[in-house]
Amino acid sequence: MEYTVQKLGKLAGVSTRTLRYYDEIGILKPARINSSGYRIYGQAEVDRLQQILFYRELGVNLESIRDIVTAPDFDGAAALKEHREKLLEKRKQLDALIANVDKTIALTEGRITMSNKEKFEGFKKNMIEDNEKKYGKEVREKYGEDTVNKSNAKLMNMTEEEYQEVTKLSEDLSKTLAEAFKTGDPAGELAQKAAEMHKKWLTYYWHDYSKEAHAGLAQMYVDDERFTAYYDKEQPGTAAFLRDAVFIYTGMNK
Questions:
Q1: Considering its fold, how many domains does the chain have in total?
Q2: Which of 160, 157, 166, 105 is nearest to 128 (CA)?
Q3: DSSP 3-state assignment of 33?
């Protein structure tokens, strides 16, 4: 079966403007243009649009989606299996949050009692699963299964008071690092204070602290573009500055 832009847009629940844009950027070309100048889409294009929408739902940007679906070795069947696994992970995260909300509703209505630990359990589970999805493979390869599992267990056992403390510490660290960056001196007082605060922040999550691991993580902030993007979003170069400050703090800059 073939579809015009209007019909395909209606079928997929997307606007005709979106489909035209996908054509312009080369992510979804029509099968052909008919004699009247209309874009015509076939089954292959319908299947590709489904893949694109799956990736969009998972938060992948259009540039990355284009690279994926237009790659010569793209395997649609394997991609669907991957989508399924990621959607199951997402559902698991949502189920944990929904269960937490349900408990909180029941608590406010006086039907159950709920400890403060339980109130934050769903959020902590979601945090762990999100981190695993984003960085799990790299971190486990670098630090080992046992280290990561112990870190996750420590987070799950974090008290409400500790959670509030580490949240405030994270905010203070960001402010201090931003001010230190302006000095341009990773060995300076402010930069070394930021490195100390970074160590303290890590101890809330790590089962064991070592200078080598601290320096290794700081280097990962520079080597992994996802970490770099996070630290550099306000001031480009911050990730490298923090790395240098941590190297000096830990004595690993030799």
A1: 3
A2: 157
A3: strand
